[in-house]
Specification:
Shape: globular
Mean pLDDT: 94
Strand content: 25-35%
InterPro entries: Acyl_CoA_acyltransferase, Gcn5-rel_NAT, GNAT_YJDJ
Strand order of the largest sheet: 1-2-3-4-5
CATH superfamily: Gcn5-related N-acetyltransferase (GNAT)
Number of domains: 1
Domain N-acetyltransferase: 6-94
Largest sheet: 5 strands, mixed
Distance between the termini: 54 Å
Structural class: alpha+beta
Pfam families: Acetyltransf_CG
CATH architecture: 3-Layer(aba) Sandwich
Protein name: N-acetyltransferase domain-containing protein
Helix content: 10-25%
Low-confidence stretches: none
């Protein structure tokens, strides 16, 4: 069951479709600035859970963030969990540059 992911910037999200269907099987919503992209919500329709839709959304979104030289803020629990299991993407995570003084 091939999963195709497309970036829909006007909707500020990535959309996944399965087997070339017109129906959207899952989405990953984001907020983007010039320096980072915050992934805020991921949703996969129940009938597509466990079919790799969520992973395809995350991998595509993170690969595009890397290509655009953006840092990633994973506020969505699905994104955060996926990144924690895939160390090859952990270098994308946003690190605050502010220093707390005592």
């Amino acid at each position: 069951m091939p999963v195709e992911v497309s970036h829909v910037p006007e909707a500020k999200r990535y959309e996944a479709r399965v087997d070339g269907a017109s129906e959207v099987a899952g989405v990953a919503e984001y907020i983007r600035t010039t320096e980072l992209v915050a992934f805020v919500h991921t949703e996969v329709k129940a009938e597509y859970e466990g079919a790799g839709v969520g992973s395809a959304l995350v991998r595509t979104a993170l690969d595009e963030a890397r290509a655009a030289n953006l840092r990633v803020l994973a506020t969505c629990p699905f994104f955060a969990g996926w990144i924690s299991r895939h160390p090859e993407y952990q270098d994308l995570l946003y690190q605050s540059r502010s220093k707390v003084s005592d």
